[in-house]
Amino acid sequence: MTCFFKRTIAAKLGRTLHQPDDVFIPALSAVPVFKKQQTSDFRLTISILRTNGVLPASGDIQTQTEHLANQLKRDSVVEEIAAGSAGINFKINRKLLAQKILEPFGTEHQGKIGLHSELLNSLQKGTTLVEYSSPNIAKKFHAGHLRSTIIGNFIANLRESLGNKVIRMNFLGDWGMQFGLLGAGFSQFGSQEKLAENPLQHLYEVYVKVNKEAEHNEDTTLAARNFFRRLERHESRAVSLWQQFRNITVSEYRRVYERLGVHFDVYSGESCHQEGVREAVQQLRNRGLLKTTEKGTAIVDLSAGDLSNVCTVLRSDGTSLYITRDIAAAIDRREKYHFDEMIYVTDKSQTHHFQQLFQILRAMGHSWADRCHHVPFGLVQGMKTRTGEVVFLEDLLDEARARMLHNMSQSKMTKEMDDAEDTAQKVGISALIAQDFRGLLQGDYKFDWDKMLQAQGDTGVFLQYTHARLCSLIQKNNDIDTATFDPSLLTEQSSVSILQHLLRYDEVLYQSAQDLQPKHLLNFLLKLCHLTASAHRELPVKGSAQQVAQARKRLFSGTCSVLANGMRILGIIPVDKM
Ligand code: ARG
Asked: What is the residue-level pLDDT of the chain in tens, covering all 578 positions?
């Protein structure tokens, strides 16, 4: 949407300064819209040109800006050029602005709207493996797992929509001593009926009970150790019980993730790398990276004398640790999927773990470790349902749906719907996601049902409400054909503000693609919703003259497409009615 204008301005600069047009593109950006205030459309940032060596870095920057602004000629595309404090501001002919921005909405495949700009095409394309969610079997699904799930899903959606091949991976905590406990505990506290009835709940109960028991009962601890040993030796009865726990857990999670709108291409897990662990340890040994301590553990020394940077990879009994399994898993993934980039999404307490992991991989000669990234996020305080602390993802989704259903039944605005439960679920989940994506991911936040579910204000409900309203407007005016329209009829401030805001879409996606923060895109969409609310009031479609109605409907349809596409990237499924 922006390419045409940026190219035109760059050509003008190139002619004036006798330089190739391309050098000006990085310094040009769409100007953010401020409430009710008239702004220009594009800005050229002089300091960027000075840093890039396009303009001399010496001399007074303001004088330089004014001098250049005076040299540039206005024309039928760029109507105003003015030096400002931050650079040179350009105002585009209003008719052309509307025409060019709304053009793609009549032709291009709607799902790809705004995703093919020159800026976005400049991003590297390749295969991205995103690992997210990764809960532990029989344990709690906590707020950290929820955050990992929705953030990872966003990153995968973003990369995919920008033309990358994406592998979505769930890396289950499905190995380790906890399965000794669970296996041993199941013969004491477990029941196949309960397991069939409510698998996750039952596994969790057994796990909690056996842990308590093990605190004071030596026999339980011994039985657990014994069971895990049988597992590690692949003894068939132990393995088949473990396999049953795993299968049941995966199929339950699949069902719940589907409610959330999340899916995975691969359900991997710590259990999948037992052979790989042995090989990885051998490689470490061959490279002389492994040291055996007095206690009999095996360590990798990652520092030149700094004791804090020693990483244990084998216990004294020869069993592997979390990091050992991650080393093996990373190598295996690279061999299997040939990823160009791998992204791990976990809370920030694991930052050190991933630093060590990448460091060890590099020391082993795997230069691709430079293309592995950890995306850390902060803590959520107070994630609770009516019945207390959240243990299962499903309870959280039930609560979001129930609360939203209640709010919808209280509101006079709510429309008749075929499936109110489904709508309430989608909107409730949008609320969870928007609450989570408002700030920088590293930040902590307080979970607040009332706040996130507000219909007004910057919430997921507001996004959905705006989308539904736009759909209804389009629906109500389905007799108006927008295949052609007169762009000169969109010159009111509220139209222009939306158009100007749409100009920023690709820059916002670009920014999110760079730093993997969803807040840029979320805030962009929320702003679009606020601008839409004003436009809704000020630019009626019904009852306006045919040509005016046509142009306005085209504007609202375009807005609706961008909103829907942006929401989908965030992992929010837009509803048409609410
Ligand atoms: N299962 C782990 C947990 O719940 C998260 C796994 C993260 N991924 C990894 N490759 N280490 O903390």
From this structure: 668 999 999 999 999 999 999 999 999 999 999 876 778 999 999 999 999 999 999 999 999 999 999 999 999 999 999 999 879 999 999 999 999 999 888 765 566 777 878 889 889 999 999 999 999 999 999 999 999 999 999 999 999 999 999 999 999 999 988 999 999 999 999 999 999 999 999 999 999 999 999 999 999 999 999 999 999 999 999 999 999 999 999 999 999 999 999 999 999 999 999 999 999 999 999 999 999 999 999 999 988 665 668 999 999 988 899 999 999 999 999 999 999 999 999 999 999 999 999 999 999 999 999 999 999 999 999 999 999 999 999 999 999 999 999 999 999 888 888 899 999 999 999 999 999 999 999 999 999 999 999 999 999 999 999 999 999 999 999 999 999 999 999 999 999 999 999 999 999 999 999 999 999 999 999 999 999 999 999 999 999 999 999 999 999 999 999 999 999 999 999 999 99
Portions of the chain given CATH number 3.40.50.620:
127-377
Instruction: List every span in the chain annotated with CATH 3.30.1360.70.
Output: 3-92
What single letter denotes the amino acid at residue 263?
A: H
What is d(CA 290, CA 281) in angstroms, rounded to the nearest whole number? Answer: 8
State both tokens at 108.
Answer: 């291009």
Q: Which CATH class is domain 387-570?
A: mainly alpha
Q: Which of 6, 91, 100, 142 is catalytic?
A: 142
Q: Establish whether 145 is a catalytic residue.
A: yes
**Fold observed for domain 3-92:** Gyrase A; domain 2 (3.30.1360)
Query: Amino acid identity, residue 358?
Result: F
Q: Where in the chain is the domain with CATH 1.10.730.10?
A: 387-570
Atom 5 of ligand 1: nearest residue by CA position: 134
The one catalytic residue in 139, 140, 348, 373 is 139
Instruction: Say whether 318 sits in a helix, a strand or coil.
Output: coil
**Does the active-site annotation cover 67?**
no
For atom 6 of ligand 1, the residue with the nearest CA is 134
- CATH topology for the 127-377 domain: Rossmann fold (3.40.50)
Query: Crossing angle, helix 143-161 and helix 505-515, to 10 degrees?
Result: 130
DSSP secondary structure, 456-477, as one string? SSSSHHHHHHHHHHHHHHHHHT
Q: Is the CB of 157 under 6 A from ligand 1?
A: no
Q: What is the DSSP letter of 414?
A: P
Ligand 1 centre distance from Cα of residue 145 (Å): 9
Tokens representing 105? 């909405």
Q: Is 366 annotated in the active site? A: no
Cβ distance 556 to 474 under 8 Å? yes
Which residue puts its alpha carbon closest to atom 10 of ligand 1? 326
Nearest to 171 by CA among 208, 137, 198, 123: 137
Is the shortest distance between the CB of 136 and ligand 1 below 6 Å? yes
